[in-house]
TrEMBL record:
Presence of keyword Oxidoreductase: yes
Gene3D superfamilies tied to this protein: FAD/NAD(P)-binding domain
Organism: Haloferax volcanii (strain ATCC 29605 / DSM 3757 / JCM 8879 / NBRC 14742 / NCIMB 2012 / VKM B-1768 / DS2)
InterPro entries, sorted: Amino_oxidase, Carotenoid/retinoid_OxRdtase, FAD/NAD-bd_sf
EC code(s) of this entry: 1.3.99.37
Domain spans labelled Amine oxidase: 23-495
Protein's recorded name: Carotenoid 3,4-desaturase
Lineage: Archaea, Methanobacteriati, Methanobacteriota, Stenosarchaea group, Halobacteria
PANTHER family reported in the protein's UniProt record: PHYTOENE DESATURASE
UniProt keyword list: Carotenoid biosynthesis, Oxidoreductase
Listed pathway(s): Carotenoid biosynthesis
A Pfam family it matches: Amino_oxidase
């Protein structure tokens, strides 16, 4: 624990945290460490939010996030409490980081070896190896400055940007233009452009609507590495839950919240089964729109239904969790299957919502690294196809799309799963809505478009209800497990500032 904390003004406060995703767990840890009395209410039977676990017949699947990126964020989080990630779990650096199958028959591996990756780039385009160096130098600078001065430092108001430090640190950052424009300045070959942009899926965006600043993700990918934590992302959830328990957080699972009533110093949080939790302050890690539209009376909402309808949501997903007989040698732990032109798929997500005919998708095979996730002689595999939030999701549509995806995997990777599946579960738009109260069934939250970044995202502190706060992927800094961990810190800091 910190002997002197900027959050000490929260000591003695009673706080209910609604939702046990990474944002809620992180916030709970910071508040409890500061001396607050913290109770966390989770709708579902397990903690972790979208990082839930599916266990069936000896198979164990990470249902949501499966990439462990930005290890420095996890190290910084645990260090705040005098801990290290390795106090709770070990990491394995993946080799390759990931494999890409292009649908013209081409295949490429991205490795934990910059020289090898430069040679790969050079093989596609003369001079691209050296330009990769230039690109990554720019990405590293954006990451270093962006994280310290624009991610860990919250700037919720326009006046926060009228500051000499902001001008000094932002000079030279890629603040204007799209990722597509930025990448085209370095690479002509469309496959190299795709390699530099695939991480946009983690931000819920497309090359033409995501700000160029997010080229910093290439530093994360190429320079910092891709890892697998013991037990998958579920192992990280367990670690943070253990830490929160050590700090004194009280957990209640199977506790969906029906109503948030009151204001600072006099809140009542009521669950669907009739229990009532009294507290001084409330933090919601539930879907932001759901919290405002369903848990609060109309006069206590910051935004109306039209506002939420006008937002650009990150994609939903069609997921297949598959237990498979035998090995899948052609696939890596992380595998991407990409059309050589993926513009049509992005159009079906953001411009003209529809189920994509020629999808780009992701395959995860954790049994390549972890023997515990599948019975002996079997492979654990899930397929994830990003699709538009809000699409019609019916059993008939899922069955047809399941066949399309399995056919596509066989055709483009050489792995025919169709007669080897011993366990199968699907998850799609309706499941995101039902399990996570997710607006339009988005898998991630608000997309990182130019007009939904930084101060243009919904605030941590409610403007309508004194003492009500928000954390997680709808707020700053945004989407992704590392960002949600940081959002917990930013929410706690705002609460402490208000208390002072």
């Amino acid at each position: 624990m910190n002997s002197v904390s900027a959050l000490d003004s929260l000591a003695g406060e009673s706080v209910v945290v609604v939702g046990g995703g990474f944002g809620g767990l992180s916030t709970a840890c910071y508040l409890a460490d500061a001396g607050a009395d913290v109770t966390l209410l989770e709708k579902n039977e397990q903690l972790g939010g979208r990082a839930s676990t599916l266990e069936r017949d000896g198979f164990r699947f990470d249902m949501g996030p499966s990439w462990y990126l930005m290890p420095d964020v996890f190290e910084r989080f645990f260090a705040y409490f005098g801990k290290r990630p390795e106090d709770y779990y070990e990491l394995t650096r993946l080799d390759p980081h990931y494999r890409i199958f292009f649908k013209d028959g081409d295949r490429v591996d991205m490795l934990p070896d910059i020289a090898a990756n430069k040679a790969t780039f050079e093989s596609y385009e003369p001079g691209a190896g050296d330009r990769l160096d230039d690109y990554l130098r720019k990405a590293e600078r954006n990451y270093r400055i962006g994280m310290e001065h624009f991610v860990y430092t919250d700037r919720p108001a326009l006046t926060d940007y009228i500051d000499l430090d902001v001008f000094r640190y932002s000079w030279g950052l890629s603040l204007v233009g799209s990722m597509q424009d930025h990448v085209e300045n370095y690479f002509d070959h469309p496959k190299l452009q795709q390699i530099m942009q695939y991480t946009l899926v983690f931000l819920g965006g497309a090359p033409n609507n995501t700000p160029a600043l997010y080229n910093l993700m290439s530093h994360v990918d190429f320079n910092m590495g891709v890892y697998y934590p013991d037990g998958g992302l579920a192992g990280v959830v367990d670690a943070i839950v253990d830490l929160a328990g050590e700090l004194g957080v009280e957990f209640h699972t199977d506790s969906p919240v029906a109503e948030i009533a009151g204001r600072r110093g006099g809140f009542a949080v009521r669950t669907e089964d009739g229990r009532e939790f009294l507290c001084d302050q409330v933090v919601s890690d539930a879907d932001y729109a759901h919290t405002e539209q369903e848990l609060l009376p109309e006069k206590k909402r910051q935004y109306d239904a039209d506002y939420w309808d006008s937002r650009t949501y990150a994609p939903s997903a069609f997921l297949l969790y598959l237990g498979v007989e035998g090995d899948v040698d052609e696939l890596a732990h992380h595998t991407l299957v990409l059309p050589t032109d993926w513009d049509d798929h992005f159009e079906t997500i953001f411009d003209d919502p529809a189920w994509p005919d020629d999808p780009a998708y992701y395959l995860c095979v954790p049994s390549k690294t972890d023997d515990s996730v599948a019975p002996e002689g079997h492979s654990n595999l899930f397929a994830l196809v990003p699709i538009a939030a809000g699409l019609e999701d019916t059993p008939e549509r899922r069955e047809r799309y399941r066949d399309l995806v399995l056919d596509d995997i066989a055709e483009n990777t050489g792995v025919d799963l169709r007669d080897r599946i011993v366990l199968e579960e699907s998850f799609c738009v309706n499941d995101f809505k039902e399990r996570y109260n997710s607006t339009q069934g988005t898998a991630l939250g608000l997309a990182h478009t130019l007009f939904q970044t930084a101060l243009l995202r919904p605030p941590h502190g409610s403007d309508a209800v004194d003492g009500l706060y928000f954390t997680g992927s709808f707020t700053t800094p945004g989407i992704g497990v590392p960002m949600c961990l940081i959002s917990g810190q930013l929410t706690a800091e705002e609460m402490a500032e208000d208390a002072r």
